[in-house]
Amino acid sequence: MTDAAHVGDTHAHAALIDAAGQTHAAVDFGRSAPRIVSLVPSITELLCDLGLAANLVGRTGFCVHPAAIVANIPKVGGTKDVNLEKVRALAPTHLIVNIDENEKPTVDRLAQFVPQVIVTHPLTPSDNPALYRLLGGIFGAQEAAETLCRDFERELGNLRAMPAATPKTVLYCIWKDPWMTVARDTYIAAMLAQIGWRQWTPEDGGAARYPTFDWSAKLLAAVDEVLLSTEPYRFTPAHAATLQEQIGKPVRLVDGEMLSWYGSRAIRGLAYLREIAGQ
């Protein structure tokens, strides 16, 4: 038995425990195929990359990748404004949610008629292999999950083998009117930390995961560079050029999907970190 096969076999028998501490049983495809509704865009993409597209019966309007596949999967609203009756009509056996992206009262109502609710909450890039193995284990896609794990570890190794970049403090912007950023305990901040970029957060931000801020002199003195994300607000090169002129600090447009999507896209996200670190 190869080392890779041994690792795959070991994880195949690991307990399938989600981010809410719930233990899930592996699906018995011999009895019935799962019917999955995903309320998380990056998870929808991950399920497709695990070979489970045929089992996806519902998604949000923000689940846009892979485009050719998800075009044929019914929408059930957004990540926050889920249409419960559309979900009910699809008769799912499994619902996949995320602690940050989906609202607990909505999930609690869905749990009244969806037999299995799988809760996810990756906080750092290194949480991704466990996510691959959790979903691969539940839905009989262990081999595909282990392939993703190897791909992820390879890209993480490539990133860590890079010469260390000069540390700097950045301000990652996700919205304007009002301006909003991310807290340091978010997945995005953990991604940026991989290349030595420390996310700025306001001293009075409290427990807010997505605090608002003003362009004060104190803020500008504290940051080396401003990053405008292409999502959820659709910042453009024009926004970056205008803001840079206004604040007199370097402003860079970054791909929000590469920095905020976990799941299989995180593998490409690690490669993207190497790209932006070298610019």
Instruction: Provide the succession of SSEs.
Output: HEHEHHEHEHHEHEHEHEHH
The overall average pLDDT, rounded, is 93
What fold name goes in the CATH topology slot of the largest domain? Rossmann fold
Instruction: List unreliable stretches of 5+ residues.
Output: 1-10
CATH class annotation of the largest domain: Alpha Beta
Cα shape: globular
Helix content: 25-40%
- Give me the side-by-side strand order of the main sheet: 2-1-3-4
Count of all domains: 2
CATH superfamily of the largest domain: Nitrogenase molybdenum iron protein domain
Give the amount of beta strand, in percent: 5-15%
Computed over alpha carbons, the radius of gyration is 20 Å
- Summed up, the helix count is 12
What separation lies between the terminal Cα atoms?
A: 43 Å
The biggest beta sheet is recorded as: 4 strands, parallel
- Corresponding CATH architecture of the largest domain: 3-Layer(aba) Sandwich
The number of E-state strands comes to 8
Structural class: alpha/beta
